[in-house]
């Protein structure tokens, strides 16, 4: 085979490729390059904290204020086995004190995630889901993620919650759980 | 975005959102990504390939090629943090073609651009635009020559890896090349992970053996090797006559410089043709052996797939995190089992085919090795093995003389 033959074959393939693409079925998920967590599949196993190749994981907890109940006794903020309802470390769920609680109006409190401190362990997410609205969830931060082609966390994720997303829709939001009546 | 928010407000939460008097909801802290960073890489890669071919074919300078490698390492290795790099993209493309999912244009371009370039410029991509090649080029101290038979055997490993990794990508087992990529911990400056041991092994081997990853591991290199065989521009040591001093052959650590072929005698020709007919007779056995190898290896491959592992854990009654996560979903065990069996059958077929193909490639390589080469009087460079490092330019006395005259 000469160079010319190979080129001719290549051009033929280029011309035929779009026709092949027309007859291909397209799948909905995994239609991009960037990794993201599907919060509806996530089981908060804690692997996001430990498996990421970065010294501090690119996965952070985010707060969807629109679905937060602003509870006085937030189950994402307080431990299950707390001693008292105060802000002493032994009563709080977050291991790195990344959640700040500020008074808004009686009886509502705003909870804010400090992303400098957040390690992506997902403990608060689990707590919020166990009793609250599920307004806290884990997401891969696009500004921190190194976009490894084979994400180490995705490989270790027991729930298969890591999906590929396109660059123009890089985050997946959670729907709040509905009231069981 | 807007329909999503509507859904959020329409669905009633367990604790309904309070109605505040003087408090507006803060914005969520997620920043949208400004642009597709993959497309940026494609643009920079184009600039690099043009600059590299200029350094190699026009300036013919070892120093310029070292600078090119250094720039490639700095930009693609450290500034862009390695991934996505063209070396691993064949897996994305294979998966995209197999499951019909959309392949982002950036990914497709990263995969195709170095291949297209190799059709015109040879392996200029390997020379320095590839961060993995660049780090090996720069961290090479003393060349230890790999014995020829060992080199020929090890050279088949990338072909095997290309086939195995393609099967893994097609069936969603994963991208093992990117998972075990030995230089990623270096690029991310993260030496605490267990993968750093692998990078240490490759870096230390690279001090003595030239480009151990490129020559004996890189599956993308197989494709580049194939395309650069047909390259338009071919590296050439001297434009004038050769004095047969052997300095370029001794200077090339990659074994790409071929010594002049002499005519040989009738006995040698007869031995050569007997060898080729022997090899041709062996082809069916090689294909069968390859197929058997692939058939036996298939269960090992499919056992790395998530569904197969999960089905096995469910049957064995192991309470792993994956099993617990599976039980919280709506998928039934039967569905999972059907999926796993279908996948195992697919892998069995593909792996056997890959084995047959590997047997064919090995035989083709052996026959090409036994064939009589074209008679040449000067030292030539095999464009499919040349990594465009420019060492031979620096070693050639005629080249130096010519450069001196130009000045």
Descriptive account of the structure:
The complex is a heterodimer of chains A (181) and B (407). Chain A has one domain (3-165). In chain A, the strands form 3 sheets. A two-stranded antiparallel sheet of chain A has the order 1-6. Helices cover 22% and strands 17% of the residues of chain A. The radius of gyration of chain A is 22 Å and the shape is elongated. Chain A has 4 helices and 6 strands, in the order αβαβββαβαβ. In chain A, strand 3 and strand 4 (108-113) form a beta hairpin. The longest helix of chain A has 20 residues, at 3-22. Chain B is an all-alpha fold. Chain B folds into 2 domains: 39-261 and 373-406, no CATH class; 266-370, no CATH class. Helix content of chain B is 64%, strand content 1%. Chain B contains 21 helices and 2 strands. Chain B has a two-stranded antiparallel ribbon. In chain B, helix 2 (37-59) runs antiparallel to helix 3, helix 4 crosses helix 5 (105-121) and helix 16 (266-302) packs antiparallel against helix 19. The radius of gyration of chain B is 26 Å and the shape is globular. The model of chain B is unreliable at 1-11 (pLDDT under 50).
Map the helices and strands:
The complex is a heterodimer of chains A (181) and B (407).
Chain A: H1 3-22, E1 34-37, H2 47-51, E2 59-63, E3 99-105, E4 108-113, H3 123-131, E5 136-140, H4 152-156, E6 162-165
Antiparallel strand pairs in A: 1-6, 2-5, 3-4
Chain B: H1 2-10, H2 37-59, H3 62-79, H4 89-99, H5 105-121, H6 124-129, H7 131-138, H8 148-154, H9 157-170, H10 176-179, H11 184-187, H12 196-208, H13 212-216, H14 220-228, H15 247-251, E1 257-258, H16 266-302, H17 306-316, H18 321-327, H19 333-370, E2 380-381, H20 391-395, H21 397-406
Antiparallel strand pairs in B: 1-2
Helix pairs in contact in B: 2-3, 2-5, 3-7, 4-5, 4-9, 5-14, 9-19, 16-19, 17-19
């Amino acid at each position: 085979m000469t160079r010319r033959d190979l080129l001719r074959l290549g051009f033929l393939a280029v011309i035929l490729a779009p026709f092949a693409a027309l007859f291909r079925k397209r799948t909905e998920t995994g239609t991009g390059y960037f990794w993201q967590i599907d919060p509806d599949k996530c089981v908060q196993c804690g692997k996001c904290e430990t498996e990421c190749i970065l010294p501090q994981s690119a996965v952070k907890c985010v707060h969807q204020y629109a679905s937060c109940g602003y509870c006085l006794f937030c189950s994402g903020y307080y431990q299950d086995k707390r001693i008292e309802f105060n802000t002493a470390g032994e009563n709080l769920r977050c291991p790195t004190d990344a959640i700040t609680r500020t008074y808004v109006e009686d009886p509502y409190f705003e909870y804010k995630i400090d992303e400098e401190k957040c390690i992506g362990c997902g403990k608060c997410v689990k707590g919020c889901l166990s009793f609250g609205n599920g307004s806290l969830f884990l997401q891969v931060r696009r500004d921190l993620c190194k976009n490894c082609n084979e994400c180490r966390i995705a490989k270790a994720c027991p729930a298969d919650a890591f999906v590929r997303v396109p660059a123009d829709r890089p985050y997946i939001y959670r729907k709040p759980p509905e009231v069981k009546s | 975005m807007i329909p999503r928010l509507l859904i959020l407000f329409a669905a009633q939460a367990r604790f309904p959102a309070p109605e505040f008097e003087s408090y507006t909801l803060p914005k969520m802290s997620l920043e949208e990504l400004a642009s597709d960073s993959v497309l940026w890489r494609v643009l920079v890669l184009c600039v690099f390939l043009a600059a590299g071919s200029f350094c190699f074919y026009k300036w013919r300078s070892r120093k310029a090629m070292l600078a090119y490698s250094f720039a490639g390492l700095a930009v693609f290795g450290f500034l862009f943090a390695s991934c996505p790099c063209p070396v691993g993209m064949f897996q994305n493309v294979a998966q995209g073609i197999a499951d019909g999912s959309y392949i982002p244009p950036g990914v497709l371009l990263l995969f195709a651009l170095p291949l297209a370039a190799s059709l015109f410029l040879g392996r200029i991509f390997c020379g320095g635009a590839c961060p993995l090649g660049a780090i090996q080029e720069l961290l090479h101290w003393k060349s230890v020559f790999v014995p020829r038979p060992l080199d020929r055997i090890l050279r088949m490993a990338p072909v095997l890896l290309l086939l195995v990794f393609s099967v893994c990508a097609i069936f969603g087992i994963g991208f093992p090349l990117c998972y075990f990529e030995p230089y990623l911990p270096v690029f991310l400056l993260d030496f605490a992970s267990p993968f750093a041991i692998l990078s240490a092994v490759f870096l230390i081997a690279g001090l003595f053996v030239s480009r151990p990853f490129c020559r004996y591991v890189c599956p993308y290199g197989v494709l580049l090797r194939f395309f650069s065989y047909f390259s338009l521009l071919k590296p050439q040591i001297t434009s004038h006559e050769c004095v047969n001093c052997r300095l370029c052959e001794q200077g090339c650590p990659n074994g790409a410089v071929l010594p002049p072929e002499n005519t040989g005698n009738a006995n040698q020709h007869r031995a050569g043709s007997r060898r080729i007919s022997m090899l041709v007779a062996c082809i069916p056995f090689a294909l069968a052996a390859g197929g058997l190898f692939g058939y036996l290896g298939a269960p090992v491959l499919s056992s790395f797939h998530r569904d197969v592992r999960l089905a096995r854990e469910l049957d064995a009654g192991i309470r792993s995190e994956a099993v617990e996560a599976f039980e919280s979903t709506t998928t039934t065990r039967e569905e999972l089992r059907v999926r796993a069996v279908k996948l195992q059958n697919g892998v069995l077929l593909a792996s056997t085919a890959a084995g047959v193909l590997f047997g064919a490639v090995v035989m083709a390589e052996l026959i090409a090795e036994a064939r009589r080469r074209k008679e040449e009087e000067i030292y030539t460079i095999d464009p499919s093995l040349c990594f465009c490092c420019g060492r031979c330019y620096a070693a050639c006395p005629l080249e130096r003389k010519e450069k001196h005259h130009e000045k």
